[in-house]
Amino acid sequence: MNKKVLSYIIDNNLIKSGDKILVAFSGGPDSLCLLNILQELKNELNIEIGAAHLNHLLRGEDAFKDEEFVINICKEKNIPCYVKRVDINKYSKENKLSSELAGRNVRYDFFDEILKKEGFNKIATAHNANDQAETIIFRLMRGTGLEGLSGIKVSRDNKIIRPILCLSRREVEKYIEEKDLNPRIDKTNFEKIYNRNKIRLDIIPYIQDNFNKDIVKTLNRMSLLIQKDNAFIERFSIKVYNEYCKKDNDSKIFILDKKLFKEDEAIVTRVIRNALTDYSQSHYDFEMKHIYDILELSKKETGKIIDLPKNISVENIYGDIKISSRSKENIIYDKREIAINKKEIGKEKINFSNYEFIMSILNNQSNKSLNLKESNLVKYFDLDKIRENVLFRTRKNGDKIIPLGMRGQKKLKDIFINMKIPKESRDLIPLICFDDEIAWIVGLKISDSFKVTNNSKNILKIVAKRKE
Amino acid sequence: MNKKVLSYIIDNNLIKSGDKILVAFSGGPDSLCLLNILQELKNELNIEIGAAHLNHLLRGEDAFKDEEFVINICKEKNIPCYVKRVDINKYSKENKLSSELAGRNVRYDFFDEILKKEGFNKIATAHNANDQAETIIFRLMRGTGLEGLSGIKVSRDNKIIRPILCLSRREVEKYIEEKDLNPRIDKTNFEKIYNRNKIRLDIIPYIQDNFNKDIVKTLNRMSLLIQKDNAFIERFSIKVYNEYCKKDNDSKIFILDKKLFKEDEAIVTRVIRNALTDYSQSHYDFEMKHIYDILELSKKETGKIIDLPKNISVENIYGDIKISSRSKENIIYDKREIAINKKEIGKEKINFSNYEFIMSILNNQSNKSLNLKESNLVKYFDLDKIRENVLFRTRKNGDKIIPLGMRGQKKLKDIFINMKIPKESRDLIPLICFDDEIAWIVGLKISDSFKVTNNSKNILKIVAKRKE
Questions:
Q1: Is A307 annotated as a binding residue?
Q2: Taking 70 as the threshold, does the pLDDT of residue A193 lie above it?
Q3: Which residues in chain A are contacts of B210 at CB distance < 8 A?
Q4: Which residue has the higher pLDDT, B196 or B352?
Q5: Please, is A45 exposed, middle or buried when counting C-beta atoms within 10 Å of its C-beta (0-12, 13-18, 19+)?
Q6: What is the mean pLDDT of chain B?
Q7: Per-residue pLDDT tens over the stretch B435-450
Q8: How confident is the model at residue A327 (pLDDT cuts 50, 70, 90)?
Q9: For residues B154 and A430, what is the distance between their CA atoms, to the nearest angstrom?
Q10: What positions does the domain Lysidine-tRNA(Ile) synthetase C-terminal occupy (chains A, B) (predicted)?
């Protein structure tokens, strides 16, 4: 067994001479096996090892017995041992996290703390080949991509290593038996035991009986291949990201160069995701939909803007993509209603919400065929259909419009939902009404009621300019 | 439904105006649905369609009823129809293929024939979203990589297209019902029905009930993502392949430039596979093991050679990798035994098997510490341990050697098996014996019996040069 683990360590370049390795030691069979093997390979590998145990205070008396066990084992083996107690229930409530995620956060914070204080440079965790197969099957059923299919990484950032990922659960059990070790048996852990057990007890045995008795090995082999493919694509994407993503000095604006969009879709989508994650400085999981929205935006005309979650605004600027913030400091929630008398049109620019509006009147007395250059932010209307006023306001409950080309009225609410405008953005969108009817939901739709026809004599042109 | 398929066609760029599309039409629900939808979209897409049906003569009367049904439907719809009858059982026996593979080969040959004769430019097949999910689960269980996880391709080589891959089996059935179509029900097809049914009737329902009721959609979404990742890696690999793989005029020798091996492993392994497939001009599925053997070889010393299946020989030449043939014309199966008297050593070069051997004697009377530059094909022996003869021969039953560093004898057969030397290569390997004991299995192992020690006075140097 030691030999197998040793060649896995060498093949995957997990450990080098002089490493100081902290073993995450729960006291269960896997981590006991890992600790034992590393201890036995210690001289051959020329490493130092230590053990860290977090008491999650979750399982009453059992948790303290685990802690005691861990301390005794380390004393026996003369391994430095670091123990900490954290009330994970309390922590998860305070931080609004699942106990699973809370446990992981606290554990890794604790490990990092020891790394710094005690001069360790690597953390070894005790995932085995069955954990790997179960993880892959679980992700596959829930929905995943290349990253997810890579499964548990053999090593991450040259800091976290998994030396017994090559051993099956049965091999670990055999080792424990042969060495006459007496691990603590976890009665719960922080994974979703219920789903995990279904995979372990139903799905994998079914596959073994009906399709492939070596399914665990098969999936582990696949994961190693996919990890390499994924690593390549990720490295390549980061190279492209650094080439085509420019930031201003204080990283408040990112520009994705238009040349980016000539790269392969597999790369472009990853670069966009990197940009969004990097820009928002959060682990918010942007959906593929948002990424494809930006891809689409890059093919649209300049000036077009879409809003994303996390207060992100994305704009097409002559093919480049600008990512900036709709952060509340810059945003004006305009509560005013500005009415402009028909006779005053064109005399002044109107500042409303986050836009500047310029209105002008064109004459088409000669009845020539019209060649009006419109865009998302430049629209034309039949001036003669306005009785008195042009009104600038934002939405109210019950607002309706007859969208261009349709006959019936539609609720603005439904339009916003259909066009996937985030709730927090809806109060920012200016509505331009002629008398008491909505003529333009700026940037989105115009009304059929005021459209320009061949019979229109006087045409109102409105240009909206988004303010920075 | 038409709308859904139309936008799938547009999103994936499957059809362009003017295409002439041949529908693979079995008469079953899926292909009937596909034919019907394409017929209804015909004008909108500005395409022509035809139908092709291969009667496999496998299901007695039923096969002829299918054929009749297909012909009638096409007559009704005024669609040109091409039918051919092939005895697949006979064909599969004659060509030693599974009836599954035989059916596929004959079908696609038939389609290609019609494409050429009748001016069609695309073939449409009727795989649906459930077929996709089942294919992915099947491959995953059997073992696969990125290519396999991509599943059924939406389109291949801009020639084979799958326009209803976006429809679930239920949607196809609903369509058939609504349109009051009466498809033929396949009682068998050329897929492994048994496994397929287990996935369809056991695995997918289990996942739907316990994990994810949208599993079919989930896997289809994954497959689209993976297809893009796979396409990128494949394109990139081909670029690298063209850059670093040089061929001689008649493609009898391929050289992989040493610079290749600095690329990412994901790319290097694909380039090696391409080179092997391209060189052997066969669809032989080289194992990952062979590919890693070549990767390893690239790190070894110049002159080292490994043998692969399909008569391929791979050699390290100063870090470059040369792929060439061990084809029988060039290979000498040397049946001779050449004995050289100890006194004659060094007088002549010895030509034996596919090598030329040069022997020379070094003196170490001064007892200086030795600095012998050895390699796979350059070895040193203690001359004084030879009584009379140096003998060149190839293997015989029962041959044994005491490998360097070991005490006991090992069978050559076991050594060949352990070192994974293909059977057909074993008779080519020269054995150099001193008197009646094997001293060198050329290129592989030397004997412990004749090793050079600090006490050796006279040293025999043997250089083996592989002949082109």
A1: no
A2: no
A3: 195, 198, 202
A4: B352
A5: buried
A6: 90
A7: 999 999 998 999 999 9
A8: low
A9: 43
A10: 390-462
Q: Which two tokens stand for residue B271?
A: 């380039």
Q: Check whether A353 is labelled as a binding-site residue.
A: no
Chain B CB within 8 Å of residue A222 CB: yes
Which 3 state secondary structure label does DSSP give A326? coil
Is A155 annotated to bind a ligand? Reply is no
Q: Which two tokens stand for residue A202?
A: 């139903």
Which of A118, A110, A99, A115 is closest to A157 using CA atoms?
A115
**For the structural domain made of A338-466, what CATH number should be given?**
3.50.40.10
Contact yes or no for A145 and B228 at CB 8 A = no
Residue whose entry in the numeric block shows the structure tokens 């100081």: A20
Give the best residue of B10, B140, B206, B263 to mutate against chain A (max A CB count within 10 A). B140
DSSP secondary structure code for residue A258 in this structure: G
Closest CA to B42 of B67, B23, B66, B70: B23
Is residue B321's pLDDT more than 80?
yes
Which pLDDT does position A190 carry in this prediction? Answer: 43
Strands of the sheet with A245-247, listed across from one edge? A245-247, A254-256, A320-325, A312-317, A305-308
Structure tokens at B429: 């390997």
**Contact between A115 and A123 (Cβ < 8 Å):** yes
So what's the pLDDT on residue B461? 94
- Per-residue confidence at A311, pLDDT binned at 50, 70, 90? confident
* CB-CB contact of A439 with A450 (8 Å): yes
Q: Can B248-325 and B338-466 be said to share one CATH topology?
A: no
Answer whether B224 touches A (CB < 8 Å): no
In the numeric block, the tokens 């067994």 are attached to A1
Chain B positions in Cβ-Cβ contact with residue A212 (cut-off 8 Å): 141-143
Q: Are B454 and B407 in contact (CB under 8 A)?
A: no
**Rounded mean pLDDT of chain A?**
90
CATH hierarchy code of domain B248-325: 3.30.465.60
pLDDT score for B163: 97
The tens digit of pLDDT for each residue in A213-262 reads: 999 999 999 999 999 999 999 999 999 999 999 988 777 889 999 999 99
**Is the pLDDT reported for residue A329 higher than 70?**
no
What lies within 8 Å, CB to CB, of A66 at 6+ separation is A26, A27, A53, A55, A59, A184
Give the chain A residue whose CA is nearest to the CA of B225: A145
Residue type, A61: E
Give the pLDDT mean for A150-168: 94
Determine contact: A154 vs chain B, CB below 8 A.
no
Query: CB of A382 within 8 A of CB of A370?
Result: no
Residue A186's pLDDT band, with cuts at 50, 70 and 90, is low
Tally of residues, chain B: 468
- According to CATH, the superfamily of the domain at A2-228 is HUPs (3.40.50.620)
Domain boundaries, chain B: 2-228, 248-325, 338-466
> DSSP string spanning B392-461?
EE---TT-EE-BTT-SS-EEHHHHHHHTT--HHHHTTS-EEEETTEEEEETTTEEBSTT---TT--EEEE
Is A26 a known ligand-binding residue? yes
